[in-house]
Amino acid sequence: AKNSGRGQYRQFEKVMDESLRTRQQMATDLRQALVNFDGLRVWYQPLMEISGQRVVGLEALLRWQHPVRGDVSPGDFIAIAEETGMIITLGEWVLREACKTSLKLPQVIVAVNVSPVQFRASGFVERIVEIVREEGANPHHMELEITEGVLIEDEHEARNNIIALREAGFRIALDDFGTGYSSLNYLSTFPVDKIKIDRSFTQSLGVAQNSAAIVESVVRLGHAMGLTVTAEGVETEGQKVALADAGCNQLQGYLFSQAVPFEEIEKMV
Ligand code: C2E
Ligand code: CA
Ligand code: CA
Ligand code: CA
C-alpha cells in the first residue's frame, strides 16, 4: 500500500509538471500572439430587450485560435493572461476593437469585460478614457463589465475608479451577480448602472425550488436602486418567460445567439 501511495504521488507530480509546462507554453504562445494579435478575435453576443425581439446591446468576448491547439477557451487563457500581466495589453486591444464596433453600430451599447488585474493597475481610468478618445468613440455608448474581484485589496480605490468612469460617461455593469460572497453589500457601496444575474441562477429556474423567488427579489432590489437588470445564460423559452415574469429588463444567452463575428452581429442589430 505504501508503494502504491508513492507511485500515485509520482503520477501526481508528473501530471502537475505537465500542466505547469502546458501553462508555460500557453503563456509563451499568447505573448507571441500579442505581437500582432494573430489568432485573436473579438466576437459579439447580443443582449436582447425583454421581449427577445430587439438587440439593445452587444458583449465583446475574446476568442483565441491557437496555431496548434485550435480554439482555446477564454476560461483557460484569461487566467494565464492575468497571471502574466498580458491582460493589460489584451484588454486594451479588446476595448479598441469594441470602440470601432460602437462607431459602426451606434444604436446599441457595446459592453467590454474588464479584468480585476486591469482595474487595479495604476492609471487604469486614464488609459480607458484615452483609448476611447483616440478611437473617437462615445463613452455613453459603452459599458464596462466588472466583477466583485475588483474589490480585493483596495475598496476605496475601486469606488473612486467607478465614480471616475461614470463621470467620463461610461456605464458600469456588475457581472456574474450573485456568485460572490458580498454581492448585496457591494451594491450598497458601488454606484453601478446594471447588474447581470449570473447564469447559474437563470439555469436553476424551473429546476431548483425557490429559484424564481430568488430571481424576483434580485430584480426588485435592482429596480429599487434604479438599476437595469440583465439575465445571463438564457437557453430556453421557459427561462425567458420566467425572467420576463420576474421583471428582468434584458436577456442574454444561447436562446438568442452565441457570440459571433462582427459581420454576423451586424445583421442582427
Ligand atoms: P462572462 O463575462 O460571464 O461572459 C459570459 C460567458 O458565458 C461567455 O463565455 C459566453 O459565451 C457564455 N454564454 C453566453 N450565453 C450562454 C448560455 O446561454 N449558456 C452558456 N452555457 N454559456 C453562455 P466565454 O466567451 O467563454 O467567456 C468566458 C469568460 O471569459 C467571460 O465570462 C469573461 O469572464 C472572460 N472573458 C471573455 N472575454 C474577455 C475579455 O475580453 N476580457 C476579459 N477580462 N475577460 C474576458
Ligand atoms: Ca461579462
Ligand atoms: Ca457573466
Ligand atoms: Ca463568468
TrEMBL record:
It comes from the Bacteria. The keyword Transmembrane applies. Residues 23-269 form the EAL domain. Keywords: Membrane, Transmembrane, Transmembrane helix. It comes from Pantoea rwandensis. This is Diguanylate cyclase. The keyword Repressor does not apply.
